[in-house]
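Page 42, continued from yesterday. The earlier attempt failed because a stray header line got pasted into the input along with the sequence. Redoing it now with the clean sequence only.
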Amino acid sequence: MVFSVDQWSFDVSQAAFRVYFMDGRQGQINPDHDLLRSQQIELCDSHPFSLPGDALPGVPEFRPARGLSSPHAQTAWATLFPRLIQLTATIERRLRLDDGDMLVMHDDCPQEWRRGDHVVLMLHGLGGSHRSGYMVRLAARLQQRGVRSFRMDHRGCGAGTSLAKYPYHAGRIEDLAAAVSMVERLCPGSPISLAGFSLSGNLLLRYLGEFGADLPLSLFRAVAVCPPIDLQHCSSMLNASRMGQRYDLYFARRLVRQLSNSTQWRDDVPLATVRRPPRRLYDFDELYTAPASGFESADHYYDRASSKPVIHQIRVHTTILASQDDPVVSTHAFRGLELPPNVTLCLTKHGGHLGFVGRSGVDPDRRWMDWRLLEWLLN
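This time it went through. Structure tokens are written below.
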């Protein structure tokens, strides 16, 4: 089965993936036969709250939809068929940052919402925007429940394409802090939940851990989905396989396209002098993200922005959702991670990257991830 996203295509029947299971197994998944070949390994001790998804109390087991058992199929299907739900009366709000750049917040407020009612702030993943399928679906489902939501466009993304000079990255916690302050001003007295996807999942965890006890008292819950908590490790693992290199190339090309002819283009960074565009995210970060953001190198950026070293400092009730077969973000970084009692890791065997398209009969539709997020953000 072959999928194509923009200029990126891949055959989901050819690759094999190394996965780590919470019960101590390691193996290879071959999508064409959906078989598991495993061998015994020794894992570091896990925190009591680090449980596979089907072992978490009240969480239904994720079973991939028929025909979508491979991680590539899950990832591609979620991208190609986002199942957008109509949102009405969205208000676009702009937030000026201290350095002069602007963020754009898309305010989806139900008619029945009142001051003091629940609010959710959402952050999109790498190359995404407020229009990303998972953002729109979650906002619509929240609206149906009378919950106000804000879909934030990072610097230079979505409606903010021409409103920023500096790039967003995995460590822009000051941007998230400014967005939370804006939501507090607009919704005084309301409990605020936060949802971060992919790269923004790392940013969210970094924000929660670095601010620790100094976070606003209004924060109620947080959910990070498929977060690359160790950026250096995830970058290395992405480049370690043939299929990973295809994802790497796709994201690198997409970022270069977004950057071209935008207000974020700079002539004083190494990217402006190279003859060939970068083929890896690491190269893009080395040539552009790091120097444009004040870091010495991509390695320095990854070290400063990764959330893994500060997760143990998180004080807000937080859930991390990740899939062991994620082809973009390696979950190997979760091994041996010490979690505080208020942080739960839901690690499923399948799901791909931001996929989690399940079988019918479990939830009102097959978007297993959406329904779990609603439960974790609001309860």
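Notes: The radius of gyration is 20 Å.
Reminder to self: strip header lines before submitting.
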